[in-house]
């Protein structure tokens, strides 16, 4: 538990934090047990000026409310049938967040298979909806801090090489679809997919 990243870790600019999270470990404790994975892919969403962000134009709704708060908190939202997990970033009233797009499984593999079914290991957590299901992250985690149980981020390893490119699945967002705000650990087999 001593390796939990302090609240101060999250107080860095969104694009920096999106890269700093790579290689860190995301852990979720549930009644069924503990599951964790190393973060291998992230996407930054820069709030009011980013047409791909839920908080574009400072849109403040029940869903986006947590984004207007302090950094280092959980922003979960429902996309189709999937729950997606984000790290709130920047400062109060600057609604930015980082989507965790993929993790490399660490602890609790049997739990992940139980939740996701049988498949090649590399498909367990290589997407934002897959990793939340595998780790047991749900809408109930909305608004929790990322620096204390049951959901928290710890130190992991420093990636040797980070790749940068446009985000995925945001086609109808004008110029925002081309911003190079997706970051991933180069050649990691658990990264979601190429755009």
From TrEMBL:
PANTHER family for the chain: DNA-3-METHYLADENINE GLYCOSYLASE
InterPro entries in the cross-refs: Formyl_transferase-like_C_sf, MPG, MPG_sf
EC number(s) per entry: 3.2.2.-
Alphabetical UniProt keywords: DNA damage, DNA repair, Glycosidase, Hydrolase
Annotated protein name in UniProt: Putative 3-methyladenine DNA glycosylase
Family membership: Belongs to the DNA glycosylase MPG family.
EC class: hydrolase
GO molecular function list: hydrolase activity, acting on glycosyl bonds
Pfam families: Pur_DNA_glyco
């Amino acid at each position: 538990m001593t390796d939990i990243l302090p609240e101060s870790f999250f107080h860095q600019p969104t694009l920096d934090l999106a890269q700093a999270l790579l290689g860190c470990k995301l852990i979720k404790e549930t009644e069924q047990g503990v599951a964790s994975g190393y973060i291998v892919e992230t996407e930054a969403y820069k709030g009011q000026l980013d047409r791909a962000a839920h908080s574009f134009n400072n849109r403040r709704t029940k869903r986006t409310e947590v984004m207007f708060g302090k950094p280092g908190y959980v922003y979960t939202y429902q996309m189709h049938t999937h729950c997606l997990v984000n790290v709130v970033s920047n400062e109060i009233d600057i609604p930015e967040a980082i989507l965790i797009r993929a993790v490399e499984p660490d602890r609790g593999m049997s739990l992940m298979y139980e939740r996701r079914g049988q498949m090649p290991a590399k498909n367990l957590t290589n997407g934002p909806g897959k990793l939340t299901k595998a780790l047991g992250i749900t809408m109930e985690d909305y608004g929790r801090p990322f620096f204390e149980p049951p959901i928290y981020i710890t130190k992991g390893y420093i990636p040797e090489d980070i790749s940068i490119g446009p985000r995925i699945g945001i086609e109808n967002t004008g110029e925002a679809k081309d911003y190079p705000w997706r970051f991933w650990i180069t050649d990691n087999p658990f990264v979601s997919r190429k755009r």
